[in-house]
Write a structure and sequence with these properties.
With about 325 residues, the protein is α/β, with parallel strands linked by helices. The protein contains 10 helices and 11 strands.
Length: about 325
């Protein structure tokens, strides 16, 4: 009858009010039952068998009529299936995430530590950007591209989840991390290109000056959002010191540099001292950098009443044949 019950609507739903008559019809049928009892002489066992069959059919016949009535009412209400087609045109943004993976990111002022929280919230940010191309650069004392720009966000998130501190030469080469991200965006034809640079340190490694890297980003029209992560004061480092004691390190963050990079390129600088702060930062960047999306929805309707009407006529035909052939011979 109805091939697929999803997205079904009724063109004339007022006819469904007729279904309220069903209880009244059932009550009327029960009230008239004594007048319709069949009284007949039973001369032999064969007649007894026919009488028993008649007893069953007196319930079948009203049931066939009731089902037919319901199907006819539903057919009158004109059920329609709505088929939606969406044509999505998206003007995506190219985004490179540059993440610090120096050993200081193991500090435990975030739970369990800075790097794990940064990875988890970075993954959430990526999942919110389904129409953008996203890539990943990591840096410590040196930098390299973990993932080029891609729309396959699952790959980026998988690579992000595998990041570990201590794999690269230790240190904080902000200039090299920024320049690597800029290099991945310089040939992009997207109208909007941004870098999200996250670090907890001071530029102390690398042969590329971060101020020079920010100037290049500005010339190419690449916007940089910088995030300084880490609480104030001393933080448990997550690395073992002498006699198996946990080392504690003071947070050193070059906020002046990060502010300069952000202002120079038209971005914004954020300070995240807690996981909640970092979540807020990612949410704000997500709101500031909106992808232009055009969605054209086309709807088509298919009439579904024909199947209901066909089955109603079939059941009425069966009831008519039984009444005027088989049941008539029994009576």
């Amino acid at each position: 009858m109805l091939g697929n019950m999803t997205n079904i609507s009724f063109q004339s739903p007022e006819f469904l009010l007729l279904l309220l008559a069903i209880p009244a019809i059932i009550a009327w049928h029960i009230w008239r039952k004594p007048d319709r009892e069949v009284k007949m002489a039973v001369p032999d066992l064969a007649s007894t068998s026919s009488s028993g069959l008649l007893g069953y059919t007196q319930y079948i016949m009203p049931l066939l009529r009731a089902i037919s009535f319901i199907l006819l009412v539903c057919a009158l209400a004109r059920p329609q299936q709505t088929l939606k087609e969406e044509e999505i045109t998206a003007e995506g943004i190219d985004i490179m995430i540059a993440m610090d993976v120096s050993t200081s990111m193991l500090a435990e002022d975030f739970s369990p530590n800075r790097i794990e929280v940064s990875k988890a919230l970075g993954q959430e940010f990526i999942l919110k950007r389904p129409y953008d191309r996203i890539g990943l650069v990591v840096f410590a004392g040196e930098a390299y591209t973990q993932s080029p720009l891609t729309t396959d966000h699952q790959i980026v998130n998988n690579l992000l989840s595998q990041l570990r501190c201590g794999v690269l030469k230790d240190g904080t080469a902000i200039g090299m991390g920024l320049s690597s991200a800029v290099n991945r965006l310089k040939d992009s034809e997207s109208n909007s290109r941004i870098i999200v640079l996250l670090t907890d340190g001071v530029n102390n490694e690398g042969y590329i000056d971060p101020y020079q890297a920010s100037n290049i980003a500005k010339e190419l029209g690449i916007k940089v959002y910088t995030i300084g992560i880490g609480s104030n004061g001393l933080a448990k480092s997550g690395q073992q010191g002498g006699f198996f004691r946990s080392r504690r390190s003071r947070v050193e963050l070059d906020e002046a540099l990060l502010q300069h990079i952000a202002v120079e390129t038209g971005g914004k600088y954020y300070r995240a001292q807690t996981a909640e702060d970092l979540q807020t930062v990612y949410n704000e960047i997500d709101q500031l950098e909106k992808t232009k999306i055009e969605v054209n929805v086309m709807k088509r309707y298919t009439e579904e009443y024909r199947g209901l009407l066909l089955w109603a006529l079939i059941l009425l035909g069966i009831e008519f044949i039984l009444r005027h052939t088989f049941l008539r011979s029994i009576v």
